[in-house]
Model the fold of this input.
Amino acid sequence: MDWAYIESVLPLYGKAAWLTLRTGAAGILLATLVGLLCAAALYWKVPVLRRITAAYVELSRNTPLLVQLFFIYYGLPKIGVKTDPEACGIIGLAFLGGGYMTEAFRSGVEAVDRIQEESALSLGLTRFRTFLHVILPQAAAVSSPAFMANVIFLMKETSVFSAVSLMDLMFTAKDQIGLYYRTTESLFLLVSAYLLILLPFSLLGTFWERRLRHAGFGT
Amino acid sequence: MAETVLSISHLTKRFGDQAILEDLSLEVREGEVVVIVGSSGCGKSTFLRCINALEDIQGGEIRLRGELIQSDRKNLPELRQKIGMVFQSYELFPHLTVLDNILLAPVRTQKRSRQDAREEALALLDRVGLKEKADSWPRQLSGGQKQRVAIVRALIMHPEILLFDEVTAALDPEMVREVLEVIVNLAEQGKTMIIVTHEMPFARAVADRIILLDDQRILEESDPETFFTDPKTDQAKKFLQTFEFSRKTKQRLKSPKGEFP
Done:
């Protein structure tokens, strides 16, 4: 292992890691929003919208991210929408993640008894406030393991961003191997960088889940 | 005569082809306590749920002080604020403390200040003997305590009318009384209420009017003394007999040797 080489390329990997983290976080945030909206549409059984949502979930979960990215990256310009690689990656991740997040939140929301909704409605809360203040907080406890698994899964999925010429960690490592044949060092840096990004999420998730479970609202 | 609070005319409710309530009319005046009794599955609970549009109706109309209650109306949340409902299974929100359960609606929908609502909540909790439970979680309370909190949660909205849906049916017997006493208290304060219950002595004590629901309609409607001592219809007599029997059964179960008294 050539440590001097590793030191010299650290800034490069730092930049790539920042890009991975940035696009990943943005994509996950958007995916969470999409998931919440879709879960709400399913919970309220909004006509038409619930069918579109169901179709979307199947589409997003049953096609690979790489294919989705190609569609966005090469397909959208054909209908006149210009996409830069970073936006393309974020949108792709949000599209894929939205489906997974919808399922995570749906399972949580469905675990809350319907009469809880009726109880809140009968107090005069609007349906939106009922969802926000009564259903979602209870659903969160059920959804959190699936949610955290999705966060980690989506963060890892960013590794296909290199296919649309985003200079993320994967891209940088492949580039370095191609340029200097520094396979060992490059792979070592690649694994380390992903671990550094993902471990905190994983630990945070475990901690959060345990809190939610043990807080247990008074047990 | 006191003003009409709730007026229901020709209410019809069906689940699919099955009629639950047919052409049912009822007026409730201010300060009146109407108790609805009837055998299980006669539509008592459904009737209450129709009043605050938790069920949609297939015919007739329901008006609260003249305002139409309809599930597709924009003002439904406002109207529901004026109709307090207490459920059989309490339905406190498990993720909120007792105090936050009570404060959610007044703070979020009536835009009252938390401080002001909090004071009232504590005063109301005090009246039902639960002031020290304000910061407890619902899970830490007994059924009777939960139900009293649920009543406070409805009361803080200052509803025009209160609906009680078999509020003691899920309770252990020793907790029934603490809840019923709260309701009797409310009746004495002149609150307008519709109560669905299986507790006949309580019904007799609290009601201004008793309604027997059977066969999708109001079968008998009278003051409690008449209802319990001189029921007019055969169905009412039969209905009251079922309680006679169950009282004897209870006594038998309580007597040490287990024989009929």
In short: The longest strand of chain B covers residues 4-15. The mean pLDDT of chain B is 91.
